[in-house]
Amino acid sequence: MKTLDDLLAEGVAGKRVFVRADLNVPLDGTTITDDGRIRAVAPTIAALAGAGARVVVASHLGRPKGAPDPQFSLAPVAVRLGELLGKDVAFATDTVGESAKATVAATGDGEVTLLENLRFNAGETSKDDAERGAFADELARLADLYVGDGFGAVHRKHASVFDLPARLPHAAGQLIATEVGVLKQLTEDVKRPYVVVLGGAKVSDKLAVIDNLVQKADRILIGGGMMFTFLKAQGHEVGSSLLQEDQIPAVREYLAKAKERGVEFVLPVDVVAAPGFPDVKAQQPTNPVTVPVDAIPADVMGLDIGPETNKLFASKITDAATVFWNGPMGVFEHPDYAEGTRAVAQALLDSEAFTVVGGGDSAAAVRILGFDENAFGHISTGGGASLEYLEGKTLPGLAALED
Predict the structure, then answer these.
(1) The pTM is what?
(2) 110 carries an active-site annotation
(3) 202 classed as catalytic
(4) Which of 16, 37, 216, 316 is catalytic?
(5) pLDDT tens column, 342-400
(6) Known catalytic membership, residue 37
(7) Tens digit of each residue's pLDDT (9 = 90 or more) over 5-41
(8) Residue pair 61/77 in contact by the 8 Å Cβ criterion
(9) What CA–CA distance (Å, rounded) separates 300 from 182?
(10) Cβ distance 13 to 52 under 8 Å?
(11) Helix, strand, coil distribution of the chain in percent, nearest 5
(12) Phi and psi (nearest 5°) for 354?
């Protein structure tokens, strides 16, 4: 896989370089609430601009239906990217239309243009190869070279991720090179003990990665909404907590497989619960109760791991040499249910391990709860992409960058 350094060594001055970034940031109206993904790709863009390239940046944001939708415009991102780069970023109000053509044509050496949301064009996400290819052809006319640096999208077979690199000389940006290097540390010659911490809402989202990690990890800790399917599989009642009853047979199978392989599965011993889901926006106190997992009342919903579990999980992380964490332990957006996620993050910081936070809600939680991002070994920009890599899948966006 050719790298950005290789591309820079060959010379990019005066060339139009298309950078596929992942600028899919959360917005509150037009206000960016977490700019982590913009900051992650800024070094690649800055390096290209600094070398005299005419940089054309493109990304998706949200899930528009293949047509323009103002609530998913990348216009606020252009402003923030310009602030981070210390220079104005021109903004094209379409993807391959008249605005894109004119704005790219006006981009000078060392300047940066951001195209409007790629998913405003149905060809970006089409399952039809011809439709997707036709959109990739139009994008290719805007550039001379391609740099893939949108790690959060590399598991998608989309036009700008998979088809476009085949139409232009291509290389991997700094972010993708870093992400792949980290993931190799989690799959090849792993330093042990290797501890995996999994949370999030649905166990079904994690079954494939659990299947693979049972063969690699020494210890797997389970929290978040998915813990209740595990607890139910062990015979516990879970009240009105999130439960995927249809996944119980699969969960029992993985628990048995882990036992057979000598992998330690660690489940919560207590939970923090309330009569219903909290109003995260209001942030009002909810009077939660802490109960053992074998005594969850029928009329409450578990919303976080409990204080005894916080201690248990921390003790299971202490001696680790490698830790991968994906998924919050509870509804961390509300202060009554943030302590489990906070405890896991702190345990990672207190350990001597190489620590990887697997993107998505976990990365957001680290920032929202006020932790220093630089204190972790690595914070991924792509939760879904990281999980699919750890499942052993071939990721289309990475395959497309191979020489």
Answers:
(1) 0.89
(2) no
(3) yes
(4) 37
(5) 999 999 999 999 999 987 789 889 989 999 989 999 999 888 899 999 988 999 999 99
(6) yes
(7) 999 999 999 999 999 999 999 999 999 998 999 999 9
(8) yes
(9) 40
(10) yes
(11) 45, 15, 40
(12) -80, 115
